[in-house]
Amino acid sequence: MNAATMNHAQHAAHTIGGKLVGVTDLTMRFGGLTALDQLNMQINEGEVLGLLGPNGSGKTTFFNVLTGLYKATSGSIIYKGQEVIGQTPQEIYRSGVARTFQRSRLSLPLTVFDNIVIGDYQHMNHGLFFNLFQRKAFRAEYDSYVSKVEALLNIFSPPLVARMFEPVGTFTMIDRRRIEVCRALLSQPRLLLLDEPSAGMTHDETEALMDDILQVRGKLENLTIVLIEHEMNVIERITDRCIVFNYGKKIAEGTYAEITADPNVQTAYLGEAE
Ligand SMILES: Nc1ncnc2c1ncn2[C@@H]1O[C@H](COP(=O)(O)OP(=O)(O)OP(=O)(O)O)[C@@H](O)[C@H]1O
Ligand SMILES: [Mg+2]
């Protein structure tokens, strides 16, 4: 049986536990614009949570606040018992929150290896002194990164291992996305935030990428994933639960079947005149 024929339950090797993240009255204003408006929600340990909503409803802003890129105007985000608001992006990253970006953030001339390791820069011993005078230790650290990246690529996409030292610019869109997810996974996060990973890909590529993500989830215990996604069939296939935003508020929450049947959700999407 290959990944494409497995259903969700067969992938779900681990159980969904209690609250990993609790969001209370979270508000983010940009001047006069309220991007997150008194948002209340929670992320459960081990789940794949789908985050949906029309364009501009605050999904990316939520990731930006949760990862410390923006400081919320008010409200609270408790992650593993600690307040996130006020922590630096580095502190939050070190505590196990990793993400990918809506727009690709790879450096095309650099190799796959370099692009993946850049994500873990904060953990690396990169001082000049260390570099020049502790060559042996530097070499050991470098080698350990090579094996780490190799192991990750092997889990995620084995054909990429042989091309680890090729520039990213020579890869297809789907492989670039795979590389970005590997970069996020390098720090062994507890919470992985994926901002529209299917953007710019074909239907088949999206399916393949989602299979990879489900495989990874089966192999990495305790990984919780929040996925922003517009493609409803992806949401249906890989999420345990969904939350729908509109104008920075949570307007619905539940299984895919529940949220798609919700009149509030239908109005939010139909109201978005195209
Ligand atoms: N740095 C910023 N400065 C000013 N306004 C911002 C900033 N970031 C986001 N916004 C505004 O906040 C609102 C929410 O944007 P956000 O990017 O979170 O939406 P989204 O749900 O991710 O949309 P999409 O599906 O298009 O990616 C939008 O009106 C956006 O223009
Ligand atoms: Mg967005």
UniProtKB/TrEMBL annotation:
Name of this protein: ABC transporter ATP-binding protein
Keyword Membrane: yes
UniProt xrefs under Gene3D superfamilies: P-loop containing nucleotide triphosphate hydrolases (3.40.50.300)
SMART domains referenced in this protein's UniProt entry, alphabetically: AAA
Keywords, alphabetical: ATP-binding, Cell membrane, Membrane, Nucleotide-binding, Transport
Ranges for domain ABC transporter: 21-272
GO molecular function: ATP binding
Domain of life: Bacteria
Cross-referenced Pfam families: ABC_tran, BCA_ABC_TP_C
Signal peptide stretch: none
